Records
---
Amino acid sequence: MTENPQAPNSGPDPAANEASGTGGERVIGTPTGGTAGPTGMTADAPQESTPSSAHEGPYPPEETHLRTEEEQRRGERIAALWFVIAFLAGVGFIVSYFLFPPGPDGPAVGDPSTGQIANIAMGGTLTVALFAIGAGMTVWVRRVIPHYEVASPYDELPSDEQEKSSFGEFFMRGANESGFTRRPLMRRTLFAAMLPLGVAPIVLLRDTGPLPGDILKQTMWEDGMHMVVEGTSRRIRAEDLATPGGMITALPENPEDPEHPVSLNDQSKTVIILIKMRPDDFDSEMTEEQLGWTHNGIIAYSKICTHVGCPAALYEPTTHRILCPCHQSTFDAANAAKVVFGPAHRPLPILPIRVDDEGYLVAAGDFSSPVGPTFWDAERDNYLAERED
Amino acid sequence: MSTQPPKALASAGNYLDDRFHLAKTGEKNLRKVFPNHWSFMLGEIALYSFIILIITGVFLSIWFKPSMQEVIYDGAYTRLQGVEMSEAYASTLYIMFEVRGGNLIRQIHHWAALIFVGALVAHMLRVFFTGSFRKPRELNWLIGVLIFIVAILEGLFGYSLPDDMPSGMGVRILQGVLLSLPVIGPHLSFFLFGGEFPGEDIISRLYLLHILVLPGILLALITAHIFILWHQKHTQYPGPRRTEKQVVGSPMYPAFAVKGGAFFFFTFAVIAGMSAIIQVNPIHLFGPFTPTSITSGLQPDWYMGFMEGSLRIFPDWFDFQVAGYAIPTGVLIPALVIPGILFTGLAVWPFLEQWITGDKRHHNVADRPRNAPVRTGLGVAGIVFYGVLWAAGANDVIAETFSISLYHTTYFFRVTLILGPILGFIITKRICLGLQRRDRETLEHGYESGVIQQLPGGRFIEVHQPSSAETVDTLRAKDEPVPAPDDTTDDQGIPNPKRSGLRGRLWLALNHWYTKDNVPVSHVEPGAHHHADHGAAGTNSGREGPRHR
């Protein structure tokens, strides 16, 4: 606490202190007229603002810039005015709560426009109340409480060598005496005993869900399954897609309950977009097998983007491009949904389709590849099949 | 006025002191000094927003039902009546349309979250650019980085709870990212979601994380952050009497307590005011989540924007397979590696800088950003990198607003992501050095008074006035970098074994890179040149002055 304030790069310049009218040379930490606080508050602030006689404040007078009595009185009145405003606004908040009682048709705030008014009324009064308290307190600080320029020493952080070595010695004596260092059998078996218990909570997490197995690779689509327009239970006929450029989002018909859609889990795997193309629009790169999955220029792609799983919902008929609005992966609908731009890597899986005896579009099997974001073994089966060829 | 506490207060104090021995600690802590500077209030905003988040969060959880049970809505909001939705979404509608003030609380919660992360980032940048993370405060910086990461997750999970369309899509993206992880991806996804996406568990699990686990961690980290700050005391900006040995500012009691209280109310007032008049996340307009539909122009909360941008502009060019097993780098790199680099970079910087400069001293006086040009340049490069990713998260909105081709915005951001930070670094470093030169000039000549004088010889000069003591103190407080001596060989030409390895040479190169650019002021006599004799050269002092290095 007797550090020299002119430490390298940090001390105030003595000349500067002289210029601003302070004592200058005094060493920090030495008391000035008995004003240093019990915790070692130090003081060498400008002294012109406060007379040191009869000072009753908690900090040394040269660090305390008192407000004049007149200023304090004015401050008190202004702060009080703010607090009155806050009080009234607070009352206003409670009043505005009860201004919107539920009516016979339900809550008044159920109507969006009334709800908006209620929101503004309650929010507005709350805002005024909070702001006014803040404003009143600010006036209090700036007009009534003195302005302080209190200096306080930074603690010397590292302990001195003696304390450190004393601690180190004490610690090691304790460790030795406890036998922890000297009795390895006990120590090691204790560590061994902790190990399974540490793993136990992780083991308990095992039942948070089933193992993936091959679930991600299959969907409920199977040969002969009808498709319905998403959001309805209306089956789709090939003629519904008569004009090239048309697109329909479709789901499988719920085999257990045709009136209701399949579960959300199934929806997120089975949803398809049916796109009608002119048969000669298909790219020559498409294989015979892929063309065989289409019906009369109608091709069915999984709607779930292979990047991270958003619905690839935008289709531009003139360029045959399917765009995912999340991250803009772009697929060529005329070329087996090959990726033409963006972060996706795999093409959208194709759902083989055909028409049944009644003219309805039905699936002719499951998707050509796993649906959705690419996962670890999504392409493994394909790889193995290619190696066998 | 009496200096004896009133009897009731004294007996309450004695009651506590009898049990906790508080008098001495209490006084010491009430005397804690807070340096006065506006930038110290950024962290306060974050703290106060966090308090507001807890208060409003408790209220929301009174009515919110974290359930994915499908229900047919028949609540007060007529436009969605009869629509099938999860209970989570329906109960959120209930809070908005059937609980008086519910919508206000929800909006306060959402705005406070946005401001929490924003203030936290601003606070972090302040600490970075002023070097306030330096010894002894490195560990508190690490805690701060952890708070940042947990806050982002906390925000993401909270955003997901209402189960509206955009939030469900956010969860979908999260699941897609999980799936992309090599080997364990599908397992992790199945364990988190209780099976396939979306399953029936994810909302209640995110709810658990959002209202218990992560806030608990945040509370613990924030408490530790403040305790450490309290124990080590604040840094301060250079100025009169402000040294490495003592801190100057307002004491906790009575001044700062009232100031801080006022600032809490102001923060709350601003957030409440925004919530009163600015709609945020109107989930009733988005509709419930279905995995099959989406709308274009979707934007996440701002702090997720950089992830979104990262996912958008990173191409699929580096995807590969190992024996048929997919390594989708088009997901892994933008979603995990790039944020990983950002956060790891933040976390290790104090230690890296200390290693480069070899500076093991304690620092309590903050750097002015210009006085650490390389650090400031790197910080700006980081901001540009983050900012480009963030803007790229809105590339579709940008493309539509300015009628630019969508793909062109993507190409633009890909190039800017690499060039922008480099340019940002170079320009910032130049500006810093320019400011350093001006500082030295101010120190040498004082400031330009704006008074033009004609000398007897007919020449015009601008009169310089001596700088104030405060300015001189501030400028002299500069902590000059000291380049390490080039000791690859000793004076006999014998190679120094410590500098011969790759590590030694790398260290020397980095050290020189970090320290070489500096406009020294330590030898400058303040005001040495502001007398009339210098006035004669005054007209070109601006160019002629401190050029020598």
---
Amino acid sequence: MASEAVAERRSAGHRLAGLFHGRERLQVGALLAGPVGWLVIGYLGSLALLLVAAFWSVDPLSGATIKEFTLENFESLVNEPVYRDIVWRTVRTALLVTFTDAVIAFPIAFYMAKLASRRGKALLVIGILLPLWSSYLVKVYAWRTLLSANGAINWALDPIGLHGPGYGTTAVWLVMSYLWLPYMILPIYAGLERIPNSLISASEDLGASPFTTFRRVILPLGFPAVVAGSIFTFSLTLGDYITPRLVSNDQFIGNVIFSNVANNQPFAAALAIVPIVVTIAYLLVARRLGAFEHV
Amino acid sequence: MRLSKRSRWLLRAAVAVGLAFIYVPLIVIVIYAFNSSKILEWPPPGFTTHWFSQAFKNEAAREAFFTSLKAGIAASAIALVLGTLASLAVARHRFFGRETISFLVILPIALPGIVTGVAISNTFTQVLDVPLSLFTVIVGHATFCIVIVYNNAVARLRRLSGSFEEASADLGAHTWQTFRYVTFPGMRSALMAGGLLAFALSFDEIIVTNFTIGAGEQTLPIWIYSNLFRPHELPIVNAVAVLVILISIIPVYLAHRLGAEEGGATGGRAAGGGVETEATAVP
């Protein structure tokens, strides 16, 4: 009995496997049904619904969502200077953080890719990876204590008669540059690793000074990797609302979205369209600059 | 590259300063966790492990810890299944729209977290009329964790030759047997690495969580966040923060070791935004 049942089960498994045998379309379909269903219907569907909800409104008296088309949300987004300021502040910070990280990351990545020993390389990679993955919130909180009035920064600067930036716009820039730095270092490192050493040697043999080699060989070949890294620094800054809340009184796009999500979901949806549009515009520019070409 | 001694030293100094910049804040939090004073002042006046025992005794923190654990395990399990399936399709088959899959998988992590959070919360509350809960958190986390498993699995499958699978089929194994005895053993360590990383990512996530969690429920990061503004809770928060750092770093270290055995994996997160080849999946 038992062995018969096993034989039957096995043959059922065989039959099912036989069904897939040689039928590539069926195989691909079975493999993709789950992930594509989840991401297309679930995720892209949600994004589409978000776009639709951005044109809804909320009844000011009852607080209920009115599911009728209106441009109200976008009108107030464009017409009220306070929102224009917030969008501009967020985008400006994102650009500034990206630039700062690129400048700090490049020499570190260059050292890792071209000068460090095998062992040193491995240590540096793990040394950059671990903080990248360690809790985002704890890192922001660490800065909140560092920057506080009786925190370590003021303590360290006090003997030389200086004091730290305290909470505010500078603090947001500093903390975000800190948070996303590893996201910039790793892609640049990977990009520089791919530059053949023979190209650098050729440049040197032809008499170029190290600076010329850097400017004419390493920088142009490494630049797409910088752009690839900048996608993270830029997009992560656009979406962050915890850092501004913890180290400043500034409002960023994220803060306004978060404060509206409970009472005025349609307006929050309309606001969320802004980072989507800005990110897509940025990705298109990044593609023109070659960020996706050999990565 | 030939560089003068001076330039070499300048670069080394830049690396040292960069690493110090990256590590000092984390070290400061670890020191604060052992601070004997109730007030956060620098330098701390003395040493104690009192706050760790207080943190373990804290009911809300403990509950939040288990909520985070559940969310992390469920989200990485879903991500493992979906990420593995997608990677098998992309690495082993040719079909129309194959290039789009990588883009689709990366999108939830390439778009700002707040967008994913609002979109999922909007769908559940406004359209499906499903109240927010731990379930909606898991859906959100699984969505952005798929890419981590996917990147690791695809990188591994590209390295493993497909000819073993062909040989297995030629020897009479059916599709499932080939997967079970040939493909899966080759992928196993990459999948473990991917699962660990997905767990680490989910465990300390707060941006999407904040939008998708139900009223009255807390993950550990949300517990920390809501106690940051209560000065008398801060010593316990410091101790919990150190535990969170450890819990998010240990899986990553293990994943890195697993990947290093056969050629690396932990770049998955940094490989999010369209950077998908082996070289960046394996920095």
---
Amino acid sequence: MGRAVFLGCTIRPETLAKESANAPNSMSDSIPDEAGGVGPSFKPRRRSTVRQHELPDGLLIFNPQSLKAFALNASASAVWDLCDGNHTIADIALELSQCTGRTPEELLPDVATAVQKLLELGLVEQDALP
Amino acid sequence: MVSGRPEQSNESLSPEGKGISRRALLQKTGWAVPVIVALTIPQDAYACVSPCRNTLSQGYWKNHSNSWPVNTLTVGGRSYSINELIKILETHPKKGDVTYILAHQLIAAKLNVAIGCPPPIVNGTNLIEKADELLREYPLGSRPSKNVKTAMTTLAEKLDDYNNGKPYN
């Protein structure tokens, strides 16, 4: 990710590089495998207070209430885009299948895990119970 | 909880357009395992953030209780309902009682954070937490000593600036 200006602050590339180097390599590393995670009918909605900044290959998102920022790769960003309270997790997998050449069934676990992580981080909320 | 689209900083495309263009990019690059990486941003970084344009004054919050994003708030370690907080906001500080002056600004600042404004942080110190600490030690109406009064007045002034969208550091 390149030099980023976020919330009026310039985030140094070396800071991002350092964080990325220390970060887990994949979602499966960064998210605990928890039983009873979100189901296919779960409708995630981005919290209105969360701010986002576009990057060439993803997004920076910032939660002003927890003072925490996160970098999302392109796949996680695409999931984030569809967390609008209208799409279920199954809908998101279906929509993303149309632009990735994967089947919805293949994408569903990745999408569910990403949404579970966003939920745990307080970046999305549940729109309606399944 | 208020819900809706998050603030967008890239104005070249509509939010929906950005989502579509990102999915188009995904079509080229292919699907990868979603990665969400926590970043460490020094709290002092907030010092370079221009004042939040969306903060609202204590006068606004006093007169618009229907707009409050929460039903209760903790002030000085004690939880208050909206009605109790409105009463505090309506209480004119007797003989300049600084505990009420600070509480007025603290309530407004907490409500501003609750609607999504970044908290007021100066040199790594969250002014809201500092105000809470002072009001925990010197509760409403306690008429603190001169030194404490000075500290509370300074803090109230900074929170007043924050609530009114002015530089506060």
